[in-house]
Write a structure and sequence with these properties.
By secondary structure, the protein is mostly helical. It has one helix and no strands.
Length: about 70
Amino acid sequence: MTADAQEPEIETPSPDDELKRKFREALERKRRSQAETNAAARGKDGSKIHGAHGPAASKRSFRRKSGG
């Protein structure tokens, strides 16, 4: 047989490759939506946790129990 007589091999994606492609696409969509959300919140505090670092509302006092 000659090279012209052979049929070209068509690569069929394996199930693993198809799964990886789907996960990559989903991750890309997730990153895109998060980037849009972060861009909208740049002017204000973009953190999901508010007041995480700062003085406590009231300082806790610990007292020992009296013996008895």
